[in-house]
From TrEMBL, chains A, B:
Transmembrane parts of this sequence: none
UniProt-annotated binding residues for K(+): 60, 122, 158
Function description: Catalyzes the epimerization of the S- and R-forms of NAD(P)HX, a damaged form of NAD(P)H that is a result of enzymatic or heat-dependent hydration. This is a prerequisite for the S-specific NAD(P)H-hydrate dehydratase to allow the repair of both epimers of NAD(P)HX.
GO cellular component: mitochondrion
Entry annotated with the keyword Chloroplast: no
CC cofactor: K(+)
UniProt catalytic activity: (6R)-NADHX = (6S)-NADHX; (6R)-NADPHX = (6S)-NADPHX
GO molecular function: metal ion binding; NAD(P)HX epimerase activity; nucleotide binding
Family, similarity comment: Belongs to the NnrE/AIBP family.
Residues reported in the UniProt entry to bind (6S)-NADPHX: 59-63, 126-132, 155
Name recorded for this polypeptide: NAD(P)H-hydrate epimerase
Length: 234, 234
């Protein structure tokens, strides 16, 4: 079963369709995306007991805030690194939910960083990211990479170009252990060789051909599916 | 592990907390509730291929509209019986999503009713229901009971008193095969002897004691859990 990889423009068009013609409300989409990210993280890191969620100021960060709440429900100790708090009412509600769940919301990485049993959920930037990574996200990402703790990225590894992939300008390259693409994978992750999940079971299957998008069918009642792993020798 | 059964007033207070102090947005709650209902239905009726969803005009109906979309994604043929369309913008969005998923939305039961391989999802009335059942819901429920097709109810079997249970005034008594309670079961279903699921994994576990609510822990990343079956001889 073939998998489409879409460019940034098509990803934006899919998002417009979801909240336009398809009638979805943003809180429905972030709830499902964040839940899918949390489920994927729990499958990848079943033996960890702590998650540090990196939340950006946009919709990718919204997915991260939702994922933090679900990971806490799944039994992980959670804290959220949320350096640029958004004034968007939906983001504020998601933040409030985390606070009610006793999830610490921090402006920077906790120090000292845990050395083990901990993973990062990278939800800094999503499909609308344009390089370069700016302060303070650049130094946080560098510290994340230097920590050698494992990472699962949401939609796109933060700092990667949505279309061309890992940065080649000498800046820090995040190489996450796992990735969960939402709706449909983006061109920039075509070469990603870690565990690759697909989540965001939003698209009407009957409309996929119209959208020229091909994604494998989800199994049963699953919110996520694992895509075949890239052979990095190709 | 003990399970609380709450009265109508407490159920309303929990709902107020969810959307007040806890900061949830209604579309997040209905998305999770509807997903949980769809997952429970798929577990109870794995060999059916058709679902008829009964959607009321309120939040219980909203859960039903969401469940219809997920059941369609799970591979069931779906139609929604939605006799009193709400002008609420969230309900209209949920209806639009069903239409995009090619789910028929009907004012009354499809006729002739299928005789097999079909189940009902009863999402007419939820925890704020006050008897009696009014037209046209009364005659639809009677036809559902007469059809002998199996039913899964969402939150409370429609027509049951939220506190005292099945109606005793001679009106039709819906006896669903399965029930999915949301957040916490209501007093009226204490005697329910079918398969009983709990969904709506919204409550912060740390606050359950403050709320004097006891629910068993959900397993792993599950959106639902099955409660021990009542021994109807008790």
């Amino acid at each position: 079963m073939s998998v489409s990889y879409v460019c940034q423009k098509t990803a934006a068009q899919v998002d417009d369709l979801l909240m336009g013609k398809f009638g979805y409300l943003l809180p429905q989409l972030v709830e499902q995306a964040g839940l899918a990210a949390a489920v994927a993280a729990a499958r990848v890191f079943p033996r960890s007991n702590r998650a540090i969620i990196l939340a950006g100021p946009g919709n990718n960060g919204a997915d991260g805030l939702v994922a933090a709440r679900h990971l806490k429900l799944f039994g992980y100790e959670c804290s959220v690194v949320y350096p640029r708090r958004s004034s968007n009412p939906i983001m504020q509600s998601l933040q409030q939910q985390c606070e009610v769940f006793s999830i610490d919301i921090l402006p920077d990485l906790p120090r000292p960083l845990p050395s083990s049993n901990t993973f990062f959920v990278d939800a800094f930037f999503g499909f609308s990211f344009k390089p370069p990574v700016r302060s303070p996200f650049d130094s946080i990402l560098k510290e994340v990479v230097d920590s050698k703790l494992p990472v699962i990225s949401v939609d796109i590894p933060s700092g990667w170009d949505v279309e061309t992939g890992p940065p080649t300008d000498g800046t820090t390259v995040l190489q996450p252990e796992a990735l969960i693409s939402l709706s449909v994978p983006k061109s920039g992750v075509k070469s990603f060789s870690g565990r690759h999940f697909l989540g965001g079971r939003f698209l009407p299957p009957g409309l996929l051909p119209v959208l020229s998008i091909s994604i494998p069918p989800y199994p049963g009642e699953e919110m996520i599916q694992e895509l075949p792993r890239n052979d990095s020798s190709l």
